[in-house]
Write a structure and sequence with these properties.
Elements (H helix, E strand, L loop, with lengths): L7 E6 L2 H12 L13 H6 L9 E4 L8 E6 L12 E3 L7 H17 L3 E6 L8 E5 L5 E4 L1
Parallel strand pairs: 1-3, 4-7
Antiparallel strand pairs: 2-3, 5-6, 6-7
């Protein structure tokens, strides 16, 4: 019998700390403590070789239940649509206009943080409504 394994979700991006801090706000995640011997992440970052400074940043669920998110700097920009994206579950159990109102309220909060609203996809008899969005670097995600 297979055992459940913990996993991390990794984002390629241009500005790892900026994107990580955005997702901390979206999910209620926190930045982990810096490595032993360093008071801040900035102090740790300055200890790295210049080419590694700012190359990665992470955030985690403070309860330990959700996956760790890791953001790594890559030289190329985003070129095509994500093949995998996060669905942020803000409308669970809601239907119709009540669900849309919950999606719209969360969308407004995230737009204020730098997200971009893409499109409201209305319920179609098979799927409930969801709202397509992009994070601060254009990575797609949905409010579901």
């Amino acid at each position: 019998m297979s055992t459940i394994k913990k996993f991390q979700v990794t984002f390629d991006c241009a500005e790892p700390e900026r994107v990580a801090r955005f997702w901390c706000e979206v999910l209620g995640y926190v930045v982990p403590r810096p490595p032993e011997g360093f008071d801040t992440w900035a102090e740790y970052d300055r200890s790295l070789p210049p080419e590694r400074q700012g190359a990665g940043f992470s955030c985690m669920d403070p309860t330990g239940v959700g996956p760790r998110l890791y953001f790594q700097r890559v030289p190329e920009g985003r070129v095509v649509k994500n093949r995998v994206h996060l669905d942020i579950r803000v409308g669970t159990g809601l239907v119709g206009e009540e669900r849309v109102a919950a999606l719209e309220a969360e969308c407004a909060r995230l737009v204020a943080l730098g997200a971009v609203r893409v499109q409201l996809l209305r319920a179609d008899g098979f799927d409930e409504s969801c709202l397509a969005m992009q994070d601060v670097e254009g990575n797609e995600f949905c409010l579901d």
